[in-house]
Amino acid sequence: MINVGEILLDLWNGSGFAALTQGFLSQGGWQNLLMIIIACGLLYLGIVKKFEPLLLVGIAFGCLLSNLPLGGLYHQELWDAFMDANNPAYHSYGAILREAGLIDIFYIGVKTSLYPCLIFMGVGAMTDFGPLLSNPKSLLLGAAAQLGVFVAFFGAVLLDFSGPQAASIGIIGGADGPTAIFLTSQLAPELLGAIAVAAYSYMALIPLIQPPIMNALTSAKDRRIKMVQTRQVSKTEKIIFPIVVVIFVALLLPDTAPLIGCLMLGNLFKETGVTDRLSDTVQNALMNIVTILLSTAVGATMVGSTFLTTNTLKIVVLGVVAFGISTAGGLLGGNVMCKLTRGKVNPLIGSAGVSAVPMAARVANTVGQKNNPSNFLLMHAMGPNVAGVIGSAIAAGFLLSVFGG
Amino acid sequence: MMFLAATIPDHLQNISFGNAAVVALLGYCVVFFGIVLLMCVITIMGKIFVAKANKAKAAAPAPAAPVTVTPVAAAAPEAPGSAGQLKLHDVPPKTAAMLMAIVADQMGKPLNELRFISIKEVK
After folding, report:
1. A323 in helix, strand or coil?
2. Pick from A123, A106, A111, A3: nearest CA to A61
3. End-to-end distance of chain A based on CA atoms, in angstroms?
4. How close, in Å, is residue A145 to chain B by CA atoms?
5. How confident is the model at residue A215 (pLDDT cuts 50, 70, 90)?
6. What CA–CA distance (Å, rounded) separates B102 from A229?
7. Is B6–A83 a contact, with Cβ atoms under 8 angstroms apart?
8. In chain A, where are the structural domains located?
9. What integer pLDDT is reported at residue B91 of this predicted model?
10. What distances in angstroms separate CA A298 from CA A309, A322, B36, one per listed residue?
11. Mean pLDDT of the A227-240 span
């Protein structure tokens, strides 16, 4: 005779509710509970406030899943063993797969840098490098706007982070999510959750962070400058560009080859005119699939015991400093170009040198129009904006070559 | 794929302020160096393409014989208040109308006070 009572009792004892009442909270489970509340807060920001919803919703849900007791979807201890040179499971995917939960399997794509590279392919397929090709000087603004990366790196060292951790925090200033995840997953995987959330949150807040800095660092007269239309770029030039860039940048900094290679491959798909199906897949289906896997896996790394530390608070502060200084660096570059060209360049386009395509360019356009409603800076700002993507990839490649061993 | 965090020397793992400042400065310079070189390559590439386009334009055969022009009726006088014809290059009229409305809205001026001469898609 089946003992229904015993079955129900077993069910209860195996449930997360029982875990919550049987010492889970006193054994550090309160941190998981707090993370569940934070996950709900992030879901609110993503769904209601529309802060980068395509990523933040997945990140928040991944965080929620990995902090629920007994879910077994993600095992931080497996990944700690994977990175521990003294552990038999060191760099063993076999060991991971033997005990993996669903999100552990998703996370392999982060660990191998597969997802950030595929996202870059999608970004490449969606990017028009025409404005950059018609005005190559705008590349300089993309370089100037990497200032925040290196200032934040130095700041992080001052705040007692290790070299690789500081490099990963600094790259938040590049305002480029995939690059930040690419670098952090290799140099400081323990900070991945905090850095990804900081990077994507600040990218969503660009329309609030940048305008005060733009107004402070440029004169009203300069903000009203109208820029002349740049030359038209031929189709052939656009096809040759990704090939030239990938050869050139990968030879200069081989560590950037995965990111730049994928970015330019995606762009080549877009420009050739004979691979429309591939371009369409990369821009839409592939990008969406990878976004789901990437955001959920990154969110799952936000486990209470590793996320709720003072380091996370420091990263949040350093992240906003990095963004602010990168914007300032781009604007200072814009001011220099304005002076050198005797007022032909509107310095506001410098702020678009932080990647965040196309949000930063839109902000430059909006601030320009507030000062002169007939001023349309969007196409001019797109040059520095896409240059910022290349600049942040070069910065990441440099940091990887220094701290990657 | 390499996993790098455990293999770096101690002076980089626990980096001093002085070394960090050097790395930061060097990194910024490397970014500029890479970008300046890339800019040079793109500029040269652009110049080659512009020169090629100009050459092709110059080499285009001039009209061999004067073309007889059939006199056409003079264009009808424009209606009072009209700003003349708008030339559209590869832009459907619907898109053009939308663009003009957006421009007018962003400039804060009524559409009938603006004159649009042509709308061209920048490819």
Report:
1. helix
2. A106
3. 65
4. 10
5. very high
6. 19
7. yes
8. 110-403
9. 80
10. 17, 21, 35
11. 88
Q: How much is the average pLDDT of A42-69?
A: 90
- Interface probe for A, chosen from B1, B2, B12, B15 (most Cβ of A below 10 Å), is B15
State the DSSP code for A171: G
Structure tokens at A175: 């305002």
Asked if A157 lies within 8 A of B107 by C-beta distance, the reply is: no
Question: At A231, phi and psi to the nearest 5?
Answer: -70, 160
Q: Measured between CA atoms, how close is B69 to chain A, in angstroms?
A: 33
Q: If you average pLDDT over residues B78-84, what whole number do you get?
A: 61
DSSP B40: H
Q: Using CA of residue B30, residue A211, residue A165, residue A117, what is the dihedral sign?
A: negative
Whether residue A147 lies within 8 A of chain B, CB to CB, comes out as yes
More confident call, B104 vs A321: A321
Give the CA count within 13 Å in the CB-facing half-sphere of A171: 35
Name the residue in chain B with its Cα closest to that of A326: B28
A113: helix, coil or strand? coil
Q: Is the pLDDT of residue A271 over 60?
A: yes
Distance, in Å, from the CA atom of B3 to the CA atom of A396, rounded to the nearest integer, reads 16
What does the pLDDT read at residue B2? 44
pLDDT of residue A172: 93
Query: Cis omega before residue A373 (within 30°)?
Result: no
> What's the CA gap between A19 and A13, in Å, rounded?
8
- CB-based contact A402 B108, cutoff 8 Å: no
For A114-138, what is the mean pLDDT?
92
Spatial CA neighbour of B35 closest among A256, A48, A59, A70: A256
Contact A76, A59 (CB under 8 A): no
Shortest CA distance from B33: residue in chain A? A143
Q: Which residues contact B77 (CB under 8 A, 6 or more apart)?
A: none
Q: How far is B40 from chain A (nearest CA, A)?
A: 8
Does the pLDDT at position B95 exceed 80? yes
Q: How distant, in Å, are the alpha carbons of A28, B71, B78 from that of B74?
A: 89, 9, 11
Q: What is the DSSP letter of B9?
A: -
Rg (CA), chain A: 23
How close is the nearest chain B Cα to the Cα of A57, in Å? 29
Mean local confidence (pLDDT), A203-230: 91
> Residues A300-305: what's their mean pLDDT?
86
Is residue A207 within 8 Å of A363, Cβ to Cβ? yes
Q: Do A153 and B20 touch (CB under 8 A)?
A: yes
**pLDDT above 70: percentage of residues in chain A:** 99
